[in-house]
Amino acid sequence: MISEREAAKYPFLNDAVTLVETLGLTLEDLMDPGHTKVLDRAERRVAQAIINGEATSELGDTITELLSFPVGNMFITAMGEQFLFRRYALSEAVRAQGLLKDETEERLAKIARLEFGWTLRLVDESLDGRLYRFELLFKDYLRNAAGFREPEWKIVNRLMREGYVLLTRREASRLLQEEIQRRIADLVSRRRQISLPGPLGAKVESLKKFFDENRSRLTGEDLPSELMTEAFPPCIRHAFEGLMAGKRLSHMERFGLTSFLINVGMDIDEIVNLFVSVTDFDEQFTRYQIEHIAGLRGSRTKYTPPTCSTFKTHSVCYNPERLCQHIKHPLSYYRIKVRDIQREQGPESGDEAPNTQAAK
Fold first, then answer.
1. For the segment 25-73, what is each residue's pLDDT rounded down to a tens digit?
2. Which helix (H) or strand (E) holds 155?
3. Residue 132 forms beta bridges with which residues?
4. CB of 93 within 8 A of CB of 99?
5. In the chain, count of helices (H) and strands (E)?
6. What is the C-alpha separation between 343 and 131, in angstroms, rounded?
7. In Å, what is the CA distance from 243 to each residue of 129, 231, 248, 252, 327?
8. Kind of pairing, strands 160-161 and 164-167?
9. Residue 58 DSSP class
């Protein structure tokens, strides 16, 4: 039988689901004050999926971590947002991959075989400077790598032997992430949507409000059709002007600027051209990175810019203005600034000013 800690790490495993079922918890049980920590953790899991697209692991209290997963699934179903079904499944799958990377090859192989039916063999071979630890049957590889856009995942670029594809540890855990994401999406989507009572319903309403406040940032709604550089927040403007001057940006500045420009509607080719003046410019590599951030490669996840607090942590919050004191995200600043500019220009300025209050 699976240990409580293993079940908390990987609550989507069949044995973990069985363990939860043996506890026999009902909705009435969950409304008891003794389960407040479970509800709070489940709420955090969903909120992390909404805002970051990646749930954290909180293994200090294994039973709370374990139980919060099915409760989080229940919250997501009750919210009834198809967009969140996919985002939550991805968030939990990314969390799981982070843990899988630290497992032994034997443990990875066991999960792959027993849970997902992989035909997998352990190997220990160093070829072309890469250490391969697994051989995966061709059909199992294709099922999980078919959606990847990166050249390294194309079957013509893979080392194969007798119908098996060689994999590194990192690659095996990445393919497992795809399996996990599908399983969690299935767990959530096949649940029947119900109205939850008491504190459960209160959590759902709180999460609905939180999602509505962040909806436009996540889905790209309420942005003007024309890019307005004069509405850029100071941090983005600093990075943008630095790039135009040929300055080499830090990783956080590059990611923040690129994800911001993608989310406000700049064309991929235009963004690539911005990097031409950088001394180490490599068009193929730059385009690959930008398309990955745009969700055109890999997991198809479109990334949003980091929050203001993350920018501050990485020392890329430059010359904050008065408005910066009242917002938590660069896109929130942009929407508010766009609204103010369009209001000053009058009703004939183009697009109707967007409603930006939900992004604060």
1. 999 999 999 999 999 999 999 999 998 888 999 999 999 999 999 999 9
2. none
3. 125
4. no
5. 16, 4
6. 59
7. 34, 17, 7, 13, 25
8. antiparallel
9. -
Higher pLDDT, 96 or 128: 96
Residue pair 149/297 in contact by the 8 Å Cβ criterion: yes
Measured CA to CA, the distance from residue 134 to residue 101 in angstroms comes to: 14
Please return the burial class of 24, using the count of CB atoms within 10 Å of its CB with bins 0-12, 13-18 and 19+: exposed
| Distance (Å) of CA 183 to CA 14, 88, 102, 171, 322 | 11, 12, 21, 19, 46
How long is the chain?
A: 360
37-46, 276-285, 307-316: least confident range? 276-285
Q: Which tokens is 235 given?
A: 């941090």
- Helices 169-189/62-79 angle, 10° precision: 50
* DSSP H or E stretch at residue 51: helix 36-51
Cα–Cα distance, 151 to 166 (Å, whole number): 15
Retrieve residue 230's tokens.
Answer: 């004069």
- Structural domain boundaries of the chain? 4-99+183-215, 102-176, 220-359
Tell me if 163 sits within 8 A of 120, measured CB to CB: no
Residue 350, pLDDT above cutoff 70? no
Q: Which of 166, 176, 104 is closest to 135 using CA atoms?
A: 166
pTM across the whole model:
0.63
| Measured distance between the N- and C-terminal CA atoms of the chain, rounded to whole angstroms | 47
Which pLDDT tens digit goes with each residue over 139-186?
999 999 987 767 888 899 999 999 999 999 999 999 999 999 999 999
pLDDT band at 225 (very low <50, low <70, confident <90, very high): low
Angle, CA of 119, 121 and 127, to the nearest 5°: 125
* CA 120 – CA 337 distance, rounded (Å): 54
pLDDT tens digits, one per residue of 6-21: 999 999 999 999 999 9
Structure tokens at 226: 């024309």
pLDDT score of 279 = 61
